[in-house]
Each structure stands twice: as C-alpha cells, then as structure tokens.
TrEMBL record:
It is found in: Cell membrane. One of its GO terms (molecular function) is transmembrane transporter activity. It comes from Bacillus spizizenii (strain DSM 15029 / JCM 12233 / NBRC 101239 / NRRL B-23049 / TU-B-10). Keywords: Cell membrane, Membrane, Transmembrane, Transmembrane helix, Transport. This is Major myo-inositol transporter IolT. The lineage of its organism: Bacteria, Bacillati, Bacillota, Bacilli, Bacillales.
Length: 482
C-alpha cells in the first residue's frame, strides 16, 4: 500500500474514532441535561404550585419540595457509585433513564405536596446517581489531553438543561399562568430527554477501564480500539493493567483505611462542599423568588431568570475553553473570589437600594455576574476534579461519597434558604454565604492539588508516591523522638 493510501486510511480511522467518542459524549451527557432540567424547573414551578396549584405550600413545604430532590440526590450519589462499580457505567445509566421517566411522571401527576415530595426524592435518586456515573464514565473513556474538555461537556449539558427549564417556565407561565395545571406542564417535559438517554445508551459501549477492572482486558482493548488509534490503545491498556495490579479486589470502605486514599477522599469531600457553599443553588432553585423579593412581578421574574440560564451556558463554554489554557486550581480560586464579591454586593446593595425601582435590576445583574464566575470556573472544575482524583478501584465509591456530601450540603442550603429569606431577609442570608466562601478559598489554597495534563493512572501514581513520602516522614519523626 502506498504512503498516501496508508495516510488516507489512517485519517479515516481517526475520524471514525473521534466520531464515536463524540457520540458517546453526547448521548451520556443527556444524563446531565436531565440533572439540569429537573433541578432548574422547580425554580419557576414553585410560585404556581403555591398560588394556582392548590398544594397549599408554606415556606417549610416549599423548601421540602425543592430540597427533597437534593436529599434523594445525596443517597443516589452514594449508591450510584457502588452500582456503577458493580454493574458498569453504561448499564447504570440505562437504569437511570427509566427512573427519570417514572419519577418525572409521578411528580407531574402528584395530587398533593406529600406525594410531590416523595416523587421528587425518587427523582433525586436518579439525579444524584447521574451526577456520579456520567462524569466517571466520561473521564474513563477520554484521552488524557482532552479529558477536561470532554468531562466538562456534562456541566455544559447541565446548564443547558437549566436554561431549557427557565425558558419553558417563562413561556408556559406567561401563556398559561391562570391554569391550575401550569406547573405540571413544566415538569412533564423532562420525560423527553430521558427517553433519548435510554435509547441512546443502547448503542454506547462500556467504559474500558471498568471492563479492565473486572478482568475483561480483551473487551477493554476492543472498546479502546473503537475510540483510539491502535498503537495508542495498546499503550493505554498497558497503563491500565499496571494501575490495577494488586487492586483487583472488590472496592469497599476498608480501602479508605489506607492514608493516601483517605487523604484523596477528604480532598474530594472538600471540593464537593466548596462548590455548594458558594450558594449557587439558592439562585438556581429560588432565582424567581429572589427576583420577586427584589421587586419583580412573577412573570417578569420568570423572564429575568432566562438571563441566568443564558449566562450559565456561555460561562461553561468559556470555562471549557479556559481549561485547555489554565490550570484547575487557579481557576477554582478565581471563581471563588468572583462569586464572593457578587454575593457581598447583593447583600450590601439590597440594604442601600431597598424599596427603589433600581433594586431588582441590580440584583438580576449581580446574579448574572455570580453565575458567570460560578459556572465558568467553580462548577466546571469541581465535576472534572472529582472524576479525576480517585484511584480506579475505588473511583465509583470515592466519587459517590464525595458527591453524597455535595448533595447533602445542597439539601441543607435548598431547605434553609426560603426559611432564612423569610426570617432574616435577603441581605443577611447572602452575608452568610460570603463568610462560607472565605472558608472555601482557604481550603482550596491549602489542600487542593493540581491535576491538569496527567492521565488518570499518572495521577494515581502521584498520590501513592505522596502517601509513601508522608509515611516515611512520620516514621523518621517517630524514630528521632524515640
């Protein structure tokens, strides 16, 4: 075969590999789209549930309807990691699609607040499980040099889902606001991407790293050859084999008795909580209520909320581009400084401009500024780093525990925010988030490592080496003292 023909064949194979990888990414991130829609739709549905929906909501039941999904997501994240480790990433996502459909229909036809809370909890199980399984799956199929871009496409789909929720909320709320069933129409739309996710995952292959961890090296190599050049696939399977030597045992909590793995877990939990204590989901879930509190009417608040969705999508696209240029850790710190500044200004100006016509527009502008920093830097880096830092044999479990803590913090914020807003007002509530942001910045500066530019196996080796050095230092100190 001539050199030109060989190059043409090689180019054709490369395009096929890239095309399949793009298909896998697009299909699996419909789990992120559902994550975004189901967390964002409640933002516009809640006011109608309370006024024309005949659910007789109080601040407490309002908080429970919004946050029951988050509590479910915490448990979904915990068990989702174990399920994906046991049954595979692909099969777990298939199960999730069915749960998304069933729980969404349950919420849509809920006759009262109690039934709504129960089905929102079940929906949360699906959201939490997806928040663990999809980024893990994407990290495990991605080439190291493109992992940041591919994994953070899930975050892009999350904010696209939220934007779609805000847009449909505004359209349906403006045209059908007098109907007692208006919020039901908002909720039921989520069944459509769930159906797409289920059918799409039928044609997606399993994670090669999960297959290798189960001893199915031949299947793992076959999948790698579908999404990599042959020489790259051969090299990668060697790295995977080396990484799992001596770790083929079943993952369990006993693995975290090893100091170096326990350290990674504590860092993962810290990163997860840092993402939440910015207060981002007080805006994502209660943005309409915040804008109404500032002075907008319900319809204007719903339309204003679209700006939050649009800036989130733009910011994540910018963040994905930025990940190729900038290290993860500086991005996280810059994002935290930006969100803290926006929250501080909301708190101050809510006092200074109270009762003025300018206040709602100022608050809307500052929430847009807040989300620009949050989505471009903090959220993109959070989900990426959580999918990167854990060793292969505990990746699902470790990410599950970390994401459990993320959703637990999310639940506490989602439940308490309307109560705080009702009792201490908007300014004092946002000042609390400012104080928590300061603690988050200090944590990231002291403990969070840099992960950019290294394969998952290289990161695992680095953490192991750090653990050995730390153990040696402790042993030397003990010997010196004795």
């Amino acid at each position: 075969m001539s050199t030109k023909k060989k190059e043409a064949v090689k180019e054709k194979e490369s395009l096929a590999h890239k095309g399949l990888l793009r298909t896998i990414t697009l299909v699996s991130t419909f789990g992120g789209l559902l994550f975004g829609y189901d967390t964002g739709v409640i933002n516009g549905a809640l006011p109608f549930m309370a006024t024309v929906g005949q659910l007789n909501l109080t601040p407490v039941t309002e908080g429970l309807i919004a946050s029951s999904l988050l509590l479910g997501a915490a448990f979904g994240a915990m068990f989702g990691g174990r399920l994906s480790d046991r049954h595979g990433r692909r099969k777990t996502i298939l199960y999730l699609a069915l749960l998304f459909i069933a729980a969404t229909l349950g919420c849509t036809f809920s006759p009262n607040a109690s039934v709504m809370i129960a089905f929102r909890f079940l929906l949360g199980l699906a959201v939490g499980c997806a928040s663990v399984t999809v980024p893990t799956f994407l990290a495990e199929i991605s080439p190291a040099e493109h992992r940041g871009r591919i994994v953070t496409q899930n975050e892009l789909m999350i904010v696209i889902g939220q934007l779609l929720a805000y847009t449909f909320n505004a359209i349906i709320g403006s045209t059908m606001g007098e109907s007692a069933n208006v919020w039901r129409y908002m909720l039921v739309i989520a069944t459509l991407p769930a159906v797409v996710l289920w059918f799409g995952m039928l044609i997606v292959p399993e994670s090669p790293r999960w297959l290798a961890a189960k001893g199915r090296m031949g299947d793992a190599l076959r999948v790698l050859r579908q999404i990599r050049e042959d020489s790259r696939a051969q090299q990668e399977i060697k790295e995977i084999k080396h990484a799992i030597e001596g770790t083929a045992k079943k993952a369990g909590f006993h693995d975290f008795q090893e100091p170096w793995i326990r350290r990674i877990l504590l860092i993962g939990i810290g990163i997860a909580i840092v993402q939440q204590i910015t207060g981002v989901n007080s805006i994502m879930y209660y943005g309409t209520e915040i804008l109404r509190e500032a002075g907008f009417q319900t319809e204007a608040a719903l339309i204003g909320n679209i700006a939050n969705g649009v800036i989130s999508v733009i910011a994540v696209i910018f963040g994905i581009w930025l990940l190729g240029k900038v290290r993860r850790r500086p991005m996280l710190i810059i994002g935290q400084i930006g969100t803290m500044t926006a929250l501080l200004l909301i708190g101050i100006l809510s006092i200074v401009l109270e009762g003025t016509p300018a206040l709602p527009y100022v608050v809307l502008s500052l929430t847009v500024l807040f989300l620009a920093f949050q989505q471009a830097a903090i959220s993109t880096v959070t989900w990426l780093m959580l999918s990167e830092i854990f060793p292969m044999h505990v990746r699902g479990l470790g990410m599950g525990i970390s994401t459990f803590c993320l959703w637990t913090a999310n639940f506490l914020i989602g439940f308490t925010f309307p109560i705080l807003l009702n009792h201490i007002g908007m300014s004092a509530t946002f000042f609390i988030f400012v104080a928590m942001n300061i603690l988050a910045i200090l944590f990231v500066k002291k403990y969070v490592p840099e992960t950019k530019g290294r394969s998952l196996e290289q990161l695992e080796h680095s953490f192991r080496q750090y653990g050995r050095r730390a153990d040696q230092e402790i042993q030397n100190q003990t010997t010196h003292l004795s």
